[in-house]
Amino acid sequence: MIPAVSAATVQRDQRRLLWSSIYLGAGLSLAVCCGVVAQAVVVGSPEGRWFYTYGQPATAGLVAGWILYSAASAAIVVVPRRRLGLSPWWILIAWMVVATGLQWALRSMTRHPLEALFVSDSANSFYSVTREYSAAEMLRQFDRVRSYAPLHVQSNMPGKLLLIEGLQLISTRTDVLPWLLVGLSNLGAVVMYGFVRELFDSRRTAMSAAALYLFLPARTFFFPLMNTVTPLAALVCGWLLLRWLRTGRTGYALLMGLALFGLVLFEPLPLVMGLLFLALVLSAVLRGQIAWDRFIAQAAIVIFAFIGTSEAVTAWSGFDIVRAFHIIGAHAREFNETSERPYSIWIAANLWEFAFGMGFCQTVAIAGALAFGLRTPGDWRQRLSRPIVVFCLGLLAVLVALDLIGLNRGEVIRLWIFLACFFQIPAAYVCSTLNARSAIAVVLGITAFQAAVGVTLIDFIVP
After folding, report:
1. CA 84: distance to chain centroid?
2. d(CA 178, CA 461)
């Protein structure tokens, strides 16, 4: 007769599993950082005809800067928040201010200032186009504008141009505009908190996810490019979906349709997150959180809101979002052919590049979180229906689908920043489940260290 395993033993084994995922991820991240310092790590694929080159070598001053940056980043989650007597929202605002200051300090150690990157046509061609066309002209004459514009504008929807046009209502100074974009991107931490709080009903997990979002390597590498703002739009859609599923209110379905239109107008690629959102919907329906008939009726409202907004924009400006979507998709496929980037190579190379931008602690943590959810006592239905299991499986499905589609071959550190942000959530779950500040401090510090090493030594953006 096999003796029953005590609950204490199961809990101890589960904690050991989670701590092991953190230690393994931290060790892997430090090993890769050492490889970057030695300029032995290739980010990208020379055979695939795209890789990032190294810039300045490591110096004692840079090493000191990396340590200070990572220590200061980790410190924000070590401060006991309850003693401050502030609500989570004020804590998040404080974190955003501190993160922006740390990002400014880190950028002072790089070769190229943000202003030079922002105004450069080769790095970020959106600004120069907004100097020639108004917002109305960019919509009414989208085909003409993109055909004469630099490469980045040709391969994107007009939403990014419209955003820069809107930011110039606040300031026209080229040394201020890139930091407005950084601040807007950092605002995603607030939406991340709301999304994760709805998903797991855990303030601790939500705070950890928001902190990891602020110091995500991929975002740090590519400030002040427009891709760093894309996660904000994707997270807004995710938060509206969860609020809709939780409350069943028609207003959230209507806002969801409007948000999806804004997302497509800005960057259609995150539509692949629909696989994750579908998993969350099915889970909510099976758990009885929302009835099938109510969901289907309100899903129709989402579709009608999207179509109605599209038709209104077309009637006002002549801009057809569906036609533009097809044009941009065709341009992406043509780019892969003319650049001679083979599909077979990038199926694997994309995953390595994505892991580098996501953080290696997070790469290992998703396996730890999934294993933890599946090993928790219960039958297979109970295990598969747990929020962390549903989320991890849905997230991995998005990654596999996005990679196999082959639309992006290389440069996925930049193009998949939105997905890397969602991959911070399993790591946050692992840390909050351990209920130890040291866990999130280690993951956040190592993540910030990897970001600092990469952004100072590798030329991810050149003017």
Report:
1. 29
2. 14
Chunk the chain into consecutive blocks of 10 residues (it has 463) and report each block's average pLDDT, rounded to whole numbers. 54 85 95 96 94 94 96 89 76 94 95 93 89 88 84 88 95 96 97 97 95 97 96 97 94 96 95 95 90 92 96 92 90 87 94 96 94 78 84 97 94 96 97 92 97 96 91
Residue 141 located in a structural domain:
yes
0.85 surpassed by pTM: yes
Token pair listed for 35: 């490889």
How many structural domains does the chain have?
1
Residue 309 burial (CB count, 10 A): 17
Domain range for 53: 7-225+341-457
Q: Does the residue 236 lie in any domain? A: no
